[in-house]
Target: AAA family ATPase
Amino acid sequence: MNPSTNYQQLLRNLQYLKLKQMTLHLNEVVDFGVQNQMSFIDMLIKLTNYEIDVREQNMMQSMVKVAAFPHMKEIKDFDFTFQTSVNQQQIQDFLTFRFIEENENIVFLGPSGVGKTHLATAIGIAAAKKRTSTYFIKCHELIQNLRRARLENRLVARLKHYTKYKLLIIDEIGYLPIDQEDAKLFFQLIDMRYEKRSTILTTNVNFKAWDEVFQEPKLANAILDRILHHAKVVTMVGNSYRLKDHLAQENK
Model:
């Protein structure tokens, strides 16, 4: 067969298989391969890498989108020089995702505005970019969703939905009180994820006061027991991270 005809046939095959990047870069890779006397295998690797790279990028973006993060603040955006109570080395260790492999939890504990949600989100974004199934949700919204599911007789399905994520981020535990029935729903989720999945939680309430949040000491203890059994607790103190730029202006 004519080389030109072969090339056109290959082009049509790639288009038929919807290998868009390989179609776009075929001419470039063939030219590069000929000029550099590349083997057929090496040329094929170079060509398929274009397709894989774009698909990986698309998958990464999709995983981040599905996670429903409140913002796209990453670790590089966190000012460790302002929030000195945070051990930067420990946060970097979290980014190795050992805690996910070992089904451990992370709890960010501290007053409002110190950067708990920023760090939880940043770890979540990094995990999602590594194609780890991740989901972010405010505690109040989570409780509402579980309550609605119970009323609609689909609680088991909703609990399974939240349990499937390798990393679940539950933000702002303790900002609003949780009645006993809702606390039972929360316990069921924590119990289903216990030693099977990793959860990152942020809270402004000291653990001793969780019985006030959940309004039932035994239930609060059962929840805490499962959360803290395999957990790293990051206690954060200091000025409001959100006000740091305002404070900087005042000090000028």
User: Anything to note?
Assistant: The first strand starts at residue 105 and ends at 109. The first helix runs from residue 3 to 16. The beta strands are 105-109, 134-138, 167-173, 198-203, 231-235.
